Protein: Sterol desaturase family protein
Amino acid sequence: MKHSLQSIFVFGFSVLPIIYLIRIDKITLLPDTFFNVILAVVVLTLWNEVHFFIVHRIMHLPFFMKRVHFVHHQSRIPTVWSVYSFHWFEALLLSTVPLIIMLFVPFSIVGVFLYPLASILLNYAGHCNYRFGDGYGNSWRLFGTHHNEHHSKGRANYGFASNALDKFYNCYIKRH
Structure:
């Protein structure tokens, strides 16, 4: 519970650097049209997949696993309660998803503020301990079936909502 509250605090305040950079004209915004809002949510969700995979792989290096990421892996069987159970440093790294890309790509601010909703829904899917589809990843590929295996085995399936990067980098384990 303590780690979850710390993470929620970190994620909640992660918008402050974005607001600051908008005010000093380092981040450009697009108009809040329906298309731009949807585009922002889709692009941020895809970017999150890459960002999360990189951060998650780093967290599994021995130094970070022993000092930081072990907090999240205390949940051997993922539940919706483990969604925010991170060490504060890991939460800080994960909270930079919109900040990093917004320095290079303009988005609708409404889309940026709606993105966390898509992210949390996908995160709940990955931690709800339910195997979507047939449970082998042959259907419902964008949901967290493979993340259950990550929590139980801990050595593969590093992706967020998709197993595409796990398959590309040959670190995907199918459920048996």
In short: The two ends are 32 Å apart (CA to CA). Residues 2-168 form one domain. The longest strand covers residues 29-30.
